[in-house]
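Input record (one chain):
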Amino acid sequence: MGQYWPGRSQSNTSSKQKVGKAQRAVNPYILKRVSSMFFDEDGDLAHEFYTEVRSQVSGVVTWTMKRVFEHLTPQGEVELPFARLSGDIPLVMQESLSIQNPAHMQHEDFF
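The corresponding structure, as predicted from the sequence alone:
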């Protein structure tokens, strides 16, 4: 019970826990995420990098694509264009119209 969840009652904690620990507010929004993209040696940014490989079998030359795994640098954390809700915080979202006037809801509104 070290974290404070918005909307949750803190009455179930003992008085000893309340005295020693300060409550922390948890941000329900995600503003940054770890990117799945990489930089190569030339500074190009992509999810995957490939190189053409020439192979010659019995005098027949074929070209294939081989995925590159070496000399790649992860992009790191990137800022999101808009905030997203965190899946780690137990929040329930509901449309305010259905809360105010549940009699007008139709069966089709649930599907």
